[in-house]
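Human:
Class, as today's exercise, you are to examine the entry below, and be ready to discuss the fold:
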Amino acid sequence: MLDQPLNPAAPAALFGRADAIAAGWAVSTAPVPYLEAVAAMEARAAAIAEGTAGELVWLLEHPPLYTAGVSARDSDLIDPDRFPVFASGRGGQYTYHGPGQRVAYLMLDLTRRGRDVRAFVAALEAWVIDALAAFNVEGGVRDGRVGVWVERKGPGWSREDKIAAIGVKLRRWVSFHGISLNVEPDLSHFDGIVPCGQTGHGVTSLVDLGLPVTMDEADAALKAAFVRVFGPVEDADAPSGTVQGVPAGTP
């Protein structure tokens, strides 16, 4: 099974905790509004920093929307009226979230994991790549391009498409935001932005690659890979928080 427990004799996790305390693993089955998710993440991250809550990985889907990271350029928002647009404190530029895309928000205590931002981002990349391997998809990273990419080839042509985005923020050495993996979103929804500021490359999904992967199967692959990269998990409830802020319009 993809989500079987880590073998006690297996090597230590790549970006694990020295104390091996399990992170919570929560899955929301209904779409979560973006502002509600951000408020809940920030509340949980603050509690982790204060030592009153444990780490949490939160898997969810959002209604269709665009978010602008701290490096977003106005010119990369092609169709501002298509979906709600939210300013986001995460790193990166514009991205799309919507049904059929698995968003995984990580509220992890990096003080317990070495306080190494580069190693953390590398671990996120390794996590996604490991999860994709469960479906025989070879994902990879590229210099100068954030996220996880797959190479696609046909008679006389080849290109690289993005299958997962990464954008995180740290506060008091606790992370929030995280990754988004395209399982079966409507890829035409990405047309309203220049995804992550990248031109000349496409966007793909597991289903677009010809793999009839369900969200549950994607979750199982993510869970198994997380254990290998970050350490043990235990089932937990989704977080809650007070919604703050308003849609940003064009940042």
In short: The helical segments are 34-50, 117-133, 215-230. The radius of gyration is 17 Å.
